[in-house]
Records
---
Amino acid sequence: MSAAQPQLETGADTFSSVRRHQLSDIVRRSALRFPDRMAICCGETRWTYSEFDRLVSRLAAALRHEGLGAGDRVGILARNSHAFALWRFAVARINAVF
């Protein structure tokens, strides 16, 4: 047993006590706390947390309407951009995976 092992075990105990949040919760909580702060800046696109949360909800609703839901796999082909962020959070909001 090395000197590092007790520290790793302590770290694991601390980590397991941290409340886990879903990815989509981050946007929703940020929209409630900071609705007018900038969330996404990509090229000419600028979305506040409130706008981003609303867009994520709309896309998530459209995905549900198409029959997608929890546990479904969704492929996302997009550049690292505002579009990718929107899709990634919408997929998380319906509890699907990408």
---
Amino acid sequence: MNKKIILLLLLVLFLGIVIIISLFCGVDNSDPSQAAVIIWQLRLPRVLLALLVGAGLASAGAVFQALLRNSLAEPYTLGVSSGAALGASLGMLFRLSSIYTTVFAFIGSLLTIFLVYTIAARKRFSNSSLILGGVTLGFLFSSIVLLIIAMVRQEGISNAVIWLMGDLSSASPQAIFLTAVFVSGGILAFFLLGRDVDLICLGEEKAMHIGLDVETIKKILFFIASLVTAACVSASGIIGFVGLIIPHIGRFMFGPKHRVLFIAVSLLGAGFLILCDTIARTVALPLELPVGVITGIFGGIFFLGLLIKAKKW
């Protein structure tokens, strides 16, 4: 059997194991009816959202790193997270329900995508214009978010801070459905365009000589990856490092062929975020940590290990 197929099957097994652990970890078996409520009404929606967000951020991160040719690019490079944070903060400022706060976050992400693309269009969608536009808007929106948090009433500050650090506890059916639509559609599009990404990575001039419309493909992929990121951030807050470290691990395991890579990082990202959320939920009982704290710790350890291995101090 092909080595890559075996690795993919192992990733599916890994995902299944972490799902089971997350569903049943800490459940009291003395009351079966209460345990069933905890598993099906509280744990399962949270696991589903973690699966979708992890897969979405990891696959979008792989797209950004490939097209921008930057190993440190991630789904938040174009400022989508800051736009979502601004929208969510406005929702909290007006004391809206969690559903409307999610909608505000998604609208904020879409507006950021529109602004970044408008700025980049003046420079013919060059990589530098996309990155600079995203970073500039990110700083601007982050400053506005801090201003809004200062204006939010005391009881709303903790909710805003937790959301900004990543939070999967409010996994509503609406959020899961919205995220599922964008993430599944996005991953399918990434897979179908995977061979085009391979050609672009070999050299844009070579790809154009073959007959590939490089600029159109890049615009489509950037836009889809941004939509996937917007859906993930609006549902879960800002969860760092998933879209940064998972593509690196995926390339180490599967190589540079992007069709296989997009499937692999989706499975790996889903399992990784479910595992991190389980740790965040159980490591400091009765307190619950934001999942972004755990992913940040793993991300820092990962890159520190890379630095030590590369001996580039």
---
Amino acid sequence: MDLSSLDLKDVCNLKSFSGTVPLFPLSTVVFFPNTLLPLHVFEPRYKQMVKDVSTSERIIGMALLKPGWESNYYGNPEVYDVVGMGRIVSSETFEDGRINIVLYGLK
């Protein structure tokens, strides 16, 4: 997808938003509105998340992990209360199942 041709009215339209988004927690990423965030998705649980949202609203919440997250990474690590929401505007799946996506930060 050529990101220069994005229709921001369509990308930012939240009229049909269900109010629920899956969280993608990372330790070093803070996601802001009106920015693009490229992600390389390789863990099975997050690959499944991308597949799931790709058939609906294409929205993911990017959450910042709180300190000490390492001890509970594969469980339910704590995240900060404020998250950045983004819509998948580009996606590429590789033969081995890894996925490159680009999120556009919503406001």
